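It is worth pausing here to work through a concrete case rather than discussing structure prediction in the abstract. The textbook approach is simple: state the sequence, then state the predicted structure, then interpret. We follow exactly that order.
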Amino acid sequence: MILRTSHSSPFGRKVKLLAIHCGLMGRIHVEPANTRNPDDSFHTQNPLGKIPVLVLDSGVCIFDSHVICEYLDSLNQGTKLFPQGPERWGALTLAALSDGLMEASLLQVYEKRYRPENKQFEGWIKMQANKVSNGLEVLENNIPQIEQSPHIGHLGLACALGYLDFRFNGNWRKKYTNLEEWLKQFSNLVPAYSATLPTD
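Step two, the predicted structure:
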C-alpha cells in the first residue's frame, strides 16, 4: 500500500501513528504528496486535493484520514482502535472533536500561508482559534481516560495537540495543564507518537 501525505500533516501523522501502533507500517510505503502541484498524481487519487490518501495494492484510493484509519484497523490483528459496543460512540465523538481541532488549526495556518498579509481576515483566524480554545477547554475539564489501550479518539487528540506544538509553539500548554499531563502519559504508552513527530 502507498500512503500519500506530507511530513507536517497532523492527519497523515494520525494514519502513521495507527499503522505503527498496529504493526502495519511494514506494509505501507510513504510517498510525499505535493498539494500545490496540479500535475501531481495525488490530485487524481483524491479529487478534493486533501491529504492523506491510501492507495491499495488494487489501485483503489481511500480517503480521508478517518476512513483510512478504519480500513487499517480492519487489518489489525490486535486490539481494535475502533471499538464496538457502548464505547464506540465516545471514541468516535472524541475522534471527531480531535479532527475539528486539527482542521481549525490548519485553517489558521493556511490563512497566513496562502493569503497576502493585507488580505488576511483576522476575524476568520479568530473564529478558528476560538474553535480550538473551546475544544481544549472542554477536554481540559473532561480528560479522556485510556482504560487499557488507546482508541482512535486518543490518537486523534494526541496528533491535534502535537500539531499545536508544531505550528503554535506549544502555547496551549500554559493553560491546559491537565491535557499536557495527558499527552505525556499518552506518549509514554504509545512510543509511535515520538517516532512520528512532524517536520517541514
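Step three, interpretation. The domain at 87-191 is CATH 1.20.1050.10 (Glutathione S-transferase Yfyf (Class Pi); Chain A, domain 2). Residues 12 and 52 are 5 Å apart (CA to CA).
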